[in-house]
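Can you please make up a whole protein chain along with its C-alpha cells because I've never seen that pairing?
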Amino acid sequence: MENQPSPKVDPELVQAALDRLVEAVHSAAQSKIQNGLFHLPASDHDALWVACGVLQKSGAFPQYKFTFYHQGMGEGTNTCAVSFIS
C-alpha cells in the first residue's frame, strides 16, 4: 500500500467543505443524477480531501461512490474535485 501524505486542515474548513459537498450531492440525488463532479478552488484542497473521506464513511449517500481528485478536470484548472458515481 502506498504511503500518502496526511492533510493538515482546520476543522472549520473541513466542515464548510463538507457542508457544500453534502448540499451538492443531496441536490443531485433528489434530481436522480447518477454521476456528478463537485469542484472547489485548490486553496480548499485538504479540506475537500478530508470531507470526501468523511462523507464516504458516513454512509449518508450509499448509492454513490466518492473519489477525490487532487486536481480538478480541465487543462490549467486551479481546482480540486470529488466525483460521485452510482
Summary: The mean pLDDT is 92. Helices lie at 11-30, 45-58.
